[in-house]
Amino acid sequence: MVKIPPEYLSEAALRGVIEAFVLREGTDYGPAEHDLDEKCRAVERQLRGGVAEICFDPVSGTTDIRTVTGRS
Prior knowledge:
Elements: E1 2-4, H1 11-22, H2 36-48, E2 52-57, E3 62-67
Antiparallel strand pairs: 1-2, 2-3
Helix pairs in contact: 1-2
Protein backbone atom coordinates (compact mmCIF):
# COMPACT_ATOMS: atom_id res chain seq x y z
CA MET A 1 0.00 0.00 0.00
CA VAL A 2 1.34 3.42 -0.97
CA LYS A 3 0.18 6.48 0.96
CA ILE A 4 -0.38 9.54 -1.23
CA PRO A 5 -0.45 12.98 0.40
CA PRO A 6 -3.35 15.04 -0.99
CA GLU A 7 -0.99 17.84 -2.02
CA TYR A 8 0.71 15.45 -4.49
CA LEU A 9 -2.49 15.34 -6.57
CA SER A 10 -3.91 18.03 -8.82
CA GLU A 11 -7.15 19.59 -7.57
CA ALA A 12 -9.08 17.68 -10.26
CA ALA A 13 -7.47 14.35 -9.37
CA LEU A 14 -8.04 14.91 -5.65
CA ARG A 15 -11.68 15.79 -6.27
CA GLY A 16 -12.09 12.63 -8.36
CA VAL A 17 -10.63 10.40 -5.63
CA ILE A 18 -12.81 12.05 -2.98
CA GLU A 19 -15.98 11.86 -5.11
CA ALA A 20 -15.38 8.19 -5.87
CA PHE A 21 -15.04 7.59 -2.13
CA VAL A 22 -18.15 9.48 -1.03
CA LEU A 23 -20.33 8.02 -3.78
CA ARG A 24 -19.70 4.44 -2.67
CA GLU A 25 -22.70 2.73 -1.16
CA GLY A 26 -22.44 2.36 2.58
CA THR A 27 -20.60 5.61 3.25
CA ASP A 28 -22.35 7.00 6.33
CA TYR A 29 -22.37 10.68 7.30
CA GLY A 30 -24.78 10.41 10.20
CA PRO A 31 -28.49 11.19 10.54
CA ALA A 32 -28.47 14.51 8.62
CA GLU A 33 -28.62 14.72 4.84
CA HIS A 34 -25.59 16.26 3.11
CA ASP A 35 -25.08 17.07 -0.54
CA LEU A 36 -22.09 15.85 -2.55
CA ASP A 37 -20.12 19.08 -2.13
CA GLU A 38 -20.55 19.04 1.65
CA LYS A 39 -19.41 15.41 1.82
CA CYS A 40 -16.40 16.12 -0.39
CA ARG A 41 -15.39 19.16 1.68
CA ALA A 42 -15.63 17.10 4.88
CA VAL A 43 -13.40 14.34 3.47
CA GLU A 44 -10.90 16.88 2.12
CA ARG A 45 -10.68 18.51 5.57
CA GLN A 46 -9.97 15.09 7.08
CA LEU A 47 -7.27 14.41 4.48
CA ARG A 48 -5.57 17.78 4.92
CA GLY A 49 -5.90 17.52 8.71
CA GLY A 50 -4.16 14.15 8.82
CA VAL A 51 -7.23 12.31 10.13
CA ALA A 52 -7.60 10.34 6.88
CA GLU A 53 -5.18 9.30 4.15
CA ILE A 54 -5.25 8.29 0.51
CA CYS A 55 -3.90 4.78 -0.08
CA PHE A 56 -3.04 3.30 -3.48
CA ASP A 57 -2.67 -0.45 -3.96
CA PRO A 58 -0.31 -0.98 -6.92
CA VAL A 59 -1.22 -4.68 -7.14
CA SER A 60 -4.95 -4.09 -7.67
CA GLY A 61 -4.63 -0.56 -9.06
CA THR A 62 -7.23 0.71 -6.60
CA THR A 63 -7.31 3.83 -4.47
CA ASP A 64 -9.01 4.14 -1.09
CA ILE A 65 -9.38 6.71 1.68
CA ARG A 66 -8.84 5.38 5.16
CA THR A 67 -8.92 6.74 8.67
CA VAL A 68 -5.46 7.14 10.15
CA THR A 69 -5.07 4.83 13.12
CA GLY A 70 -2.61 4.88 15.99
CA ARG A 71 -2.49 8.66 16.35
CA SER A 72 -1.84 10.08 19.81
